[in-house]
């Protein structure tokens, strides 16, 4: 299928020029998918594969670079208020939904990592507007293993308005830890639109506060969602996605863990893994873009494609058994804010109806 690509700049409510892009199928789209990229990332290049794939499957895909990210204006990767990102995305996405040719189309959010938090907060601001969300390794809770001590948070907060833009937050090489395929990893490292320096102080604190606030309100998530996570992810803890699944108030919710996969499920894995992930994503979207958009809870969402083991968890309870096997944590050590984590034990999960 042919895909048409468009770029456009818009101005947010604060007058800042923001970059936007779209991947459109030639024929009328099945539905609309709105991209929320991760921290330090951008849409036009880094998420090109995602946009192109989904457009080839018949979806209109729309992305925006947050203020200070990618091709958008603003201090590089400086997040003064997280709600600014949420409001900018919501305003722009709704402007697209309001176009005459899209008024009868279903509307889905798609968030990766920090973009998962953005997607959930967009939904929270208008719960009845969105028909569902695809959340890839979302940042929506701080792992208990790395949650900063309140004293540390208090100390940083006292100076955040004095040195808000200082790049002083210690971090490891997240690109090295996120993307398994070495060729893809170096291509991503070579993308100069991606922010690769230390996080700014206020940015880190805004991400921390956002994660903690989301953690306290996961029960308020009510839209249908599909959360995906690599079991070998050392950047965001798979337990974060488990908590989202278990605590969310959504009736239609699905979670899938991918054994052996890292954080970059859609861009950093070998090609066959990426294709398997997108097969799952498009299957989930297809079922909710037709008819009344609801899928019977008893439906078994499975396929047998190698190398991924598919788990359908809608209306199921988790039974945990700790195997004692350590995950591959050597590639990323230390403690991180905002869902980034250090070492932990490997957990196997099985479902019980």
TrEMBL record:
GO MF term set: hydrolase activity
- This chain belongs to which protein, by name? Serine aminopeptidase S33 domain-containing protein
The Serine aminopeptidase S33 domain sits at: 28-270
Pfam families the record matches: Hydrolase_4
Q: Which InterPro entries match?
A: AB_hydrolase_1 (IPR000073), AB_hydrolase_fold (IPR029058), Hydrolase_4 (IPR022742), MAG_DAG_Lipase (IPR051044)
């Amino acid at each position: 299928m042919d895909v048409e690509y468009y770029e456009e700049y818009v101005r947010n409510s604060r007058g800042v020029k923001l970059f936007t892009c779209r991947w459109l199928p030639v024929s009328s789209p099945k539905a609309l998918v709105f991209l929320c990229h991760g921290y330090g990332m951008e849409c036009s290049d880094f998420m090109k594969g995602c946009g192109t794939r989904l457009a080839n499957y018949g979806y209109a895909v729309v992305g925006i670079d947050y203020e200070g990210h990618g091709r958008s204006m603003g201090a590089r990767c400086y997040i003064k208020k997280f709600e600014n990102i949420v409001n900018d995305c919501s305003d722009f996405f709704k402007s697209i939904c309001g176009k005459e040719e899209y008024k009868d189309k279903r509307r889905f959010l798609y968030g990766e990592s920090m973009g998962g938090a953005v997607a959930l907060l967009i939904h929270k601001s208008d719960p009845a507007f969105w028909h569902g969300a695809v959340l890839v390794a979302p940042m929506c809770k701080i792992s208990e293993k790395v949650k900063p001590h309140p004293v540390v948070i208090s100390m940083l907060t006292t100076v955040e308005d004095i040195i808000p833009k200082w790049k002083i937050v210690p971090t490891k090489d997240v690109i090295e830890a996120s993307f398994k395929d070495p060729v893809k990893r170096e291509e991503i490292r070579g993308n100069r639109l991606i922010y690769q320096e230390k996080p700014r102080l206020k940015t880190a604190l805004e991400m921390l506060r956002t994660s903690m606030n989301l953690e306290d309100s996961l029960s308020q998530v009510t839209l249908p969602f599909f959360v995906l996570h690599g079991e070998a992810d050392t950047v965001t803890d798979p337990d974060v996605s488990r908590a989202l699944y278990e605590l969310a108030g959504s009736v239609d919710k699905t979670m899938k863990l991918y054994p052996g996969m890292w954080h970059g499920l859609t861009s950093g894995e070998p090609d066959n893994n990426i294709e398997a992930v997108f097969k799952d994503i498009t299957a989930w979207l297809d079922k909710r873009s037709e008819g009344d958009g609801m899928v019977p809870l008893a439906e078994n969402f499975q396929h047998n494609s190698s190398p991924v083991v598919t788990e359908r968890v809608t209306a199921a309870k988790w039974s945990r058994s700790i195997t004692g096997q350590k995950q591959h944590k050597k590639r990323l050590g230390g403690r991180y804010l905002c869902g980034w984590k250090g070492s932990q034990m490997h957990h196997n999960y099985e479902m019980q109806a």
